[in-house]
Amino acid sequence: MTSWPILSLVTFLPLVGAFFCLIVNGPKEAVERNCRSIALVTSGVTFLISLILWARFDPTKAGFQFEEKLDWVPALGIGYHMGIDGISLFFVLLSTLLTPICILASWESVHVRVKEYMVAFLVLETFMVGMFCALDLALFYVFFEGVLIPMFLIIGVWGGPRRVYAAFKFFLYTLLGSVLMLLAIIAIYWQLGTTDLVVAMERLQLPFTWQCYLWLAFFASFAVKVPMWPVHTWLPDAHVEAPTAGSVILAGVLLKMGGYGFLRLSIPLLPEATQYFAPLIFGLSVVAVIYTSLVALVQEDMKKLIAYSSVAHMGLVTIGAFILNIQGVQGSLFQMLSHGIVSAALFLCVGVVYDRMHTREIAAYGGLVHRMPRYAFTFMVFTLASVGLPGLSGFVGEFLVLVGAFKANTWVATLAATGLILGAAYALWLYRKIIFGELTKDSLKGIVDMNRREIVVFLPLLLLSLWMGIYPASFLDPMAASVDKLVGDYQAAIKLARTAALP
Amino acid sequence: MVVGLESWTLARPELFLAAVTALLLIYGVVRGEASTAFVAVSTSAALLVTAVLLFMPYREGTAFASLFIVDRLTTTMKALVLVGAAVTVLMSRAYFEQAKAWRFEYPLLVALATLGMMLMISANDLMALYVGLELQSLALYVVAAFQRDSIRSTEAGVKYFVLGSVASGMLLFGASLIYGFCGGTAFVEISKALIDGKGAEAGVIIGLVFVVAGLAFKVSAVPFHMWTPDVYEGAPTPVTALFAVAPKIAAMSLLVSVLMGPFKPLFAQWQQIIVAASVLSMALGAFAALRQQNIKRLMAYSSIGNVGYILLGLASGSEKGIQAVVFYLAIYLVMTLGVFATILLMKRRGVMVEGIGDLSGLARSHPMMAFALLLFMFSLAGIPPLAGFWGKLYIFMAAVEAKLYWPAVLGVLASVVASYYYLRIVKVMYFDEPAAEALDQPVFGVNRVVAFASAVLVAVFSLAPQPLSVVAAAAAKGLFP
């Protein structure tokens, strides 16, 4: 559409910053200062450029926009094909927004190997954005897996005491899921002679049994990433051990890769298998929503609690995605965005007190409202957003998913709604334990409120959460055409399969 | 196509290498130990010149009454072998000087072994194959034991010799059976006999099994891998580097040209053998390496695993599969040379160390070296976007095309297990606290250049795998007229 390869620019600009970070030399202090600035400026500029995408995005079009297409490895039928539609647009923005916030949030808390840290984050941004833009299955896989390398290092180098265990668990768990997806991609290649996703969406016709095999292969990959119960166990470990910014990216963007993968690949490419396996997804998701909410209730570590709440919220996402009506899918997308903002902010909230007290034990806190009013307010907003208070972002997504679910399956909707009640319980419980009560602990007597940098970190997230809650149409409208197409194509494919099955 | 009296010119590169080696040998004998540095550099140069001669001019055809064949595949494989051998000779100096074993025979033995490899790659007859293989093996047995005053090195040499002789014996026995049933040793004759219906005869199949077993030993595929870890660990490190690349590429090329050439009519029979060897190699390479503490031993298991993947490409028996084999071998060559160049840089107070624990905290004391090794490890693990991923992707594409679904699934699962031990090296370098005494700062030298160049090449192949796949496609074409 445009002559400017704007998607490639957004994707690879962070790498330029990473390169400059690498070649910075000089005394340690200066290097650290420069690397921080370079990383912040690069990711900030990247975010601004990505805003152009939103501004120039045509919400009436269902297909892909800003497309770029080049041959990459023609011998293997792989092309460099980038493009976004209403489904991927906001994930790109989410990634580009959270990266500068992460860099700002680690401004003071990271003081060892700052250069490598910034490089890792910038490389990570490239892979994340690239994954949401990729329109070639192999390219998608490259970005999807490439994320593991910087994240492995971020957890392993800058993480907590059990960082090595957590990093390996994270890496091997997700790799195990993904390699099967690689075989599925290869199988699709042999069907079509290309790995181009757009071609695959139009032309891929597979017999039902093959659809099921491939669906399960994709499922192995995305379910681990989402993560769905029972393959979620890497998440609490990874979250607890990762540095604050690592948790933010993990919860904010990496989990969305799973949900996005379902919507981008599983559903449009394998509609019959999707229909066949939807009850499985519902079952696992409902278990996730209820079970992990209960588990969250008994956590003693703040990060672990939020990690389990992520699993529960993502359960709602997968329900919405596989309900496959317009409300469900829109709700699922919206819930992912909202969760991306809210859980990121909650992890940042944990980071704020962790930087001061160096503990995440819930029991170590209490009565912070007396010393930290600004913090208490921020934390409250995001807790309520997470609970789903109307007027904040969480509500819209949950509501849409439940509306969609009631249309399709009352039982699923009822059980999922139960999870929400439990969600309110643990989130409010966490808030009360930390913020309210008497300030009795001596160690907390000297704690100081958020400084200006931290306010800058939280402010955009806070405003976004309000915006998404009060006027969700700004976000739902650009999605609408693409979601309509996704749902329409799916239903057409199912109908076609049904008529074909009739004698 | 070159035929007739002029056909000997097809063997010009080999003849050149043989002549230079002979001259250098005379020079070395006359001048004594003082000549070592010159002989080593000249040998490397000669190997590289030979590689150039392969393409200037490039010609195809058969020579010496069809004993010797030259086509795209053999030329490409020879080029890989020559580069591997030349680089490892250059990498050797520091190590052998320190071990007080820097003698002029070493580079010459490597050159002779390389000559043997070139002959076996070009073999078009079972006898020629055997002669080339033995020339290679005998030279390598000596090289493995080259550090005469080291017990480990001597042991490695003896072990390699004894087990290698058994393998050669098997190969010869198989060859004689095939000769008996097919009535000839030339590949053309065998092929003709098999197409004419001798394929069903048990003798041929048994002969084939023995030949494959002999070659599987040379590529160290399971279940003929037992020598690999001990020899890799015991042999001097530069020799291990050589073993990991040159003979492996040569033997793999031979396996390809034997199985895809005269024995193609028996595809259904040998496919099972290769699939089994492949799956077992991938699994063993993955699991056995998990607990290794010595990085050379680890690389031995890693090479067994890699051979498993390459064999999977061969087992698919398709054009894509052979392309994948060539592609994978080229990337494997680069990664392996890089890893071994890095291992050769691991010194503490001037003494070579080779424990994985010695790498702890390397990212802080030697950031560049650690980063290069990180690239190699993620690449070996097959994590995209690094070069090793493209190799694996190519292999699995071929396997899925040939409907080898289960081997492909087992292969990707094995690659997950294997990634654990590659990651462990990254973990030691990046996550662990630095050792009490850091490794020496590497001095500028061949090994640094090789490590750097390999890292750059891995990066280039990661982003632009296409040119290499074009080369691989051209090489494979010859087998599929």
From TrEMBL, chain A:
Residues 134-417 form the NADH:quinone oxidoreductase/Mrp antiporter transmembrane domain. It holds the Pfam family Oxidored_q5_N. Its main location: membrane. The chain crosses the membrane at residues 6-26, 38-57, 77-105, 117-134, 140-158, 170-192, 204-224, 245-263, 275-298, 305-324, 336-354, 375-396, 408-431, 455-476. It is found in: Endomembrane system; Membrane. Keywords: Membrane, NAD, Translocase, Transmembrane, Transmembrane helix. GO terms for cellular component: endomembrane system; membrane. GO terms for biological process: ATP synthesis coupled electron transport; electron transport coupled proton transport. Belongs to the complex I subunit 4 family. This is NADH-quinone oxidoreductase subunit M. It comes from Reyranella soli.
From TrEMBL, chain B:
The keyword Transferase does not apply. InterPro entries: NADH-Q_OxRdtase_suN/2 (IPR010096), ND/Mrp_TM (IPR001750). It catalyses: a quinone + NADH + 5 H(+)(in) = a quinol + NAD(+) + 4 H(+)(out). NDH-1 shuttles electrons from NADH, via FMN and iron-sulfur (Fe-S) centers, to quinones in the respiratory chain. The immediate electron acceptor for the enzyme in this species is believed to be ubiquinone. Couples the redox reaction to proton translocation (for every two electrons transferred, four hydrogen ions are translocated across the cytoplasmic membrane), and thus conserves the redox energy in a proton gradient. NDH-1 is composed of 14 different subunits. Subunits NuoA, H, J, K, L, M, N constitute the membrane sector of the complex. Keywords: Cell membrane, Membrane, NAD, Quinone, Translocase, Transmembrane, Transmembrane helix, Transport, Ubiquinone. This is NADH-quinone oxidoreductase subunit N. Belongs to the complex I subunit 2 family. One of its GO terms (cellular component) is plasma membrane. The gene is nuoN. The lineage of its organism: Bacteria, Pseudomonadati, Pseudomonadota, Alphaproteobacteria, Hyphomicrobiales. It is a multi-pass membrane protein. One of its GO terms (molecular function) is NADH dehydrogenase (ubiquinone) activity. The keyword Translocase applies. One of its GO terms (biological process) is ATP synthesis coupled electron transport.
